[in-house]
Design a protein that fits this description.
single chain; about 375 residues; mainly beta; Porin; 16-stranded antiparallel β-barrel; two-stranded antiparallel sheet
Length: about 375
């Protein structure tokens, strides 16, 4: 108990020191050129986590630091058409390397065309639906690890993404996966390189914009021949909404995954995310996010609630403080079984036991 209290005091002191930090020099100006932009983001935190399985951890964590390049190069022979590209690597700033378990972690590696008819890109990238569903509800201020919810679509490898130009208030898009492993969907998919299927996975998505209102919808499906042998079907529907004013934003997302397990039959994993953010002034903002999940296969339901604030010193430097609580109805041994048994679809918040975490972090973009 004494050690836990000492760790908590350290976190509070760190937050107070950051609150009083003065910036005495101008911000770093990134190397920007329409054809080539180098960028990066350092995101490091002190975190204290306690869980119902008796795990307690106080450590420095990297919260998705990254480095990359992107660009837009006009094609002289095609009117109003440009080649667009992006390469982004995960940077493990807490350990000082670009590798995880001996291998590089690419976040993005894609190339494509941008034209009056829209954007068409190929490679590892955000799936089209992410922009108009999951992005609206986001994570924490920096998508820190404590703000967990079920996002199986995320970035995917071996995909082609099309996003149309704006059609009045509407925009639509689609994703096709050819020969991929499904990324976060890989528990439901076989090896796309060897299943003989042309299209392994696809989605269709659309959004509507009107003033401060943004609505998104997406349908996801894994082709039957690309399913893991433990499953007979997978599809999903997402609905998302965000309303933004000058000071305050409200957002919500409903996600329903319909899964047919060979051994357990058909059931659903449902995720609901609700949130509100408030801009106190040009520097301070606060955010509250609540997620609810229900996994019909293991009769599990749970919640994740996070509250945090951040302070921006300028456009490049900020710090955050966030606190999160997680709860689940399953006992710890049941969670382990659900996570390791292939016939039980993983659900909820990556099967993380009940617990809480506080994170105080610093982010520098360049």
């Amino acid at each position: 108990m004494l050690a836990k209290n000492a760790n908590f005091v350290c976190l509070i002191v760190a937050g107070l020191l950051l609150s009083g930090l003065a910036i005495a020099q101008e911000s770093t100006t990134p190397l920007k050129d329409p054809r080539f932009t180098a960028y990066g983001s350092f995101r490091l935190a002190l975190s204290e986590e306690s869980r119902s399985d008796d795990m307690q951890d106080f450590k420095i964590t990297d919260e998705l630091s990254r480095v990359g390049i992107l660009g837009k190069v006009p094609v002289n022979s095609l009117e109003d058409t440009s080649v667009i590209y992006r390469i982004e690597l995960r940077l493990f700033a807490d350990e000082g390397n670009l590798e995880d378990d001996g291998s590089f972690r690419s976040r993005h590696s894609w190339v494509g065309l941008s034209a009056p008819w829209g954007n068409l890109t190929i490679g590892k990238q955000w799936n089209a639906s992410w922009f108009w569903t999951n992005r609206l509800v986001g994570g924490g201020f920096n998508d820190v690890s404590i703000i967990t919810s079920r996002d199986p679509y995320h970035r995917m490898n071996n995909i082609i993404v099309y996003k149309s130009a704006r059609l009045g208030n509407f925009q639509w898009g689609s994703t096709l996966m050819l020969g991929g492993d499904g990324s976060r969907l890989n528990g439901y998919m076989s090896d796309g390189d060897n299943n003989g299927n042309t299209i392994d996975y696809y989605n269709l998505t659309a959004r509507y914009l009107a003033g401060g209102l943004e609505l998104g919808i997406a349908h996801h499906e894994i082709a039957d021949d690309s399913l893991d042998p433990a499953f007979d079907g997978y599809s999903s529907l997402q609905l998302a909404a965000k309303y933004k004013t000058e000071k305050i934003s409200f957002y919500a997302m409903l996600q329903s995954e319909s899964i047919d397990s060979v051994s357990l039959g058909a059931d659903k994993i449902d995720t609901t995310v609700l949130g509100i953010s408030y801009l106190i002034d040009a520097n301070y903002s606060i955010r509250l996010r609540h997620a609810i999940f229900e996994n019909g296969f293991v009769d599990d339901s749970g919640t994740s609630t996070a509250f945090g604030y951040q302070y921006k010193f300028d456009k490049n430097l900020r710090y955050w403080v966030e606190f999160a609580l997680r709860s689940t109805e399953l006992e710890d041994d049941e969670l382990v079984n659900a996570a390791t048994t292939t016939t039980v679809p993983a659900g909820g918040f990556d099967n993380i036991p009940t617990g809480d975490e506080i994170s105080i972090g610093l982010r520098f973009d360049f």
